Every structure is written in C-alpha cells, then in structure tokens.
C-alpha cells in the first residue's frame, strides 16, 4: 500500500508514520508535504492508494489542494478541532481521525480502507463538490478574533489596534493593556476572557497574570525547576515566569 501524509506539524507526522509502519509494515510513504503547495505537487506526481491529510495547514485549509488536484483514492482526514466536517466525511465514505491519533482508531480506519471497493468511492464531481463545500464551511467557521480595544484615558475614549498591544497583565482584579509604546490602559475583560478573544497565533498565556504578544518577547532566560523567565518590551512591573508545564508549549508556539 502506498500513501501520502499531509501534515504541517512534524511531531504529528512522525507519530502517524510510525503508527502506520507498525500496523502496515509494507506501507510505502511516497511524500510528506507540509503545505498546500507541497501537497498539490505531491498529489500531481504520485498516485497513492490512500491519503492522510490534516485539515488546517500553516498556509490554509488542505481542501484547497484537493480542489486543485483531482484525487480518486480515499482520504482519511486528521483534525484536532474541525468537527464541523465529520458528518460530511462519514456520509461520503471518507474517514477522519481526531488528533492525537489513537492507534486503535487508526487500525479501524485501515480496515475500512481495505473494505472499500472502487464503486463505493464518491464520483469525482461529487468529491470535488464536497471539497468545495467543506472549504466554504471551514472559512465560515474560522474564529474571528479581536482587532482592537476601546479604552478610556481621562475623559477620552481611544481605540487601540491589536497590532499596538504588547501584553496584558492582571493585578488586584484589574486587567491592564500595555501598548508597544509603553502606554497603560485598564480593560474590562478578565484574562480568561482575553484568552478566548485573542488570536492564539499572536498571543500566549504565559501564566495567570500575563498574556503576551509574540512581538513583545525579548530575551528568554532559563530558570530553576525547568521554568522560563521572559524579558518583555516594554518592561513589566513584575517578573514574568512560565511554568515548566507551559515552557514546552511556549517553545512550540515561538517555533511555529
């Protein structure tokens, strides 16, 4: 059996490849693209028996690759949170796996693949229509994050663009917004509320007290017990420590 693995997270790709070789020792992985462009090239130059594809890639939704290239083989989608597509996949004999991938469920998906006959696969036009519909659903379900904050200063109201925000910190039940220029404004949101309203690609919850933007992080110092200490710009009124448990997530976030 031959396959293509479309996955932009290297650890996830390695884990899936390892599980597949354990379950199917004779499997041949033809390509492991991690972008839409790479997936298009791999699909055009190979004819795999089966494709595994993450839904969200660094440069967009993988549906775009399948819209550009006609694929006749089955596809098993992997997803961490795109449950909006699950019913459509099932109806069209396309399987899905929630990440982190469970070995038993992967084995079940492979059994389902072997049981498929060519006549049970969706027609090309139907499949392409499905891809188009799912891509539209994906765009419609894309989270909308804050683009600005309306803050008060003395007797004035000011709209602060999200690009100007360096970090937020909480003290004595008051949340403060700090701009890149060093201005401080109180905001009504709690840190927990901010965590759901801010783009996780741009802001990281360092601890209970600080939510920092990627552009505000200067130097990162190693601390005792596996903790990290952040030197933010502008300077913070308190030391910013990241716990050992969150340190790994912070490194992955900065390296994404």
Automatic annotation (TrEMBL):
PROSITE patterns per record: HTH_LYTTR, RESPONSE_REGULATORY
UniProt keyword terms in alphabetical order: Phosphoprotein
UniProt superkingdom: Bacteria
Modified residues (4-aspartylphosphate): 54
Molecular function in Gene Ontology: DNA binding; phosphorelay response regulator activity
The UniProt record lists the keyword Signal: no
Domain HTH LytTR-type: 149-256
Domain Response regulatory intervals: 2-114
Protein name: Response regulator transcription factor
Classification of source organism: Bacteria, Pseudomonadati, Bacteroidota, Cytophagia, Cytophagales
């Amino acid at each position: 059996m031959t396959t293509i693995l479309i996955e932009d997270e290297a650890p996830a790709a390695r884990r899936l490849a390892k599980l597949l070789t354990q379950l199917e020792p004779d499997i041949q992985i033809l390509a492991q693209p991690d972008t839409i462009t790479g997936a298009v090239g791999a699909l055009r130059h190979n004819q795999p028996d089966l494709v595994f594809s993450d839904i969200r890639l660094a440069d967009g939704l993988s549906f775009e690759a399948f819209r550009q290239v006609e694929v006749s083989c089955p596809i098993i989608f992997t997803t961490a949170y795109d449950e909006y597509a699950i019913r459509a996949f099932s109806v069209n004999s396309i399987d899905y796996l929630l990440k982190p991938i469970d070995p038993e469920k992967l084995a079940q998906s492979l059994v389902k693949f072997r049981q498929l006959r060519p006549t049970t696969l969706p027609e090309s036009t139907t499949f392409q229509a499905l891809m188009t519909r799912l891509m539209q659903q994906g765009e419609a379900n894309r989270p909308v994050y804050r683009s600005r904050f309306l803050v008060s200063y003395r007797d004035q109201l000011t709209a602060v663009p999200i690009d100007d925000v360096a970090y937020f910190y909480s003290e004595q039940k008051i949340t403060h917004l700090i701009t890149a220029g060093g201005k401080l404004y109180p905001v009504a949101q709690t840190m927990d509320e901010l965590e759901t309203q801010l783009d996780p690609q741009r802001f990281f919850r360092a601890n209970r007290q600080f939510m920092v933007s990627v552009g505000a992080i200067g130097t990162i110092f190693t601390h005792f017990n596996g903790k990290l200490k952040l030197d933010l710009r502008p300077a913070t009124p308190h030391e910013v420590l990241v716990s050992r448990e969150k340190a790994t997530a912070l490194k992955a976030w900065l390296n994404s």
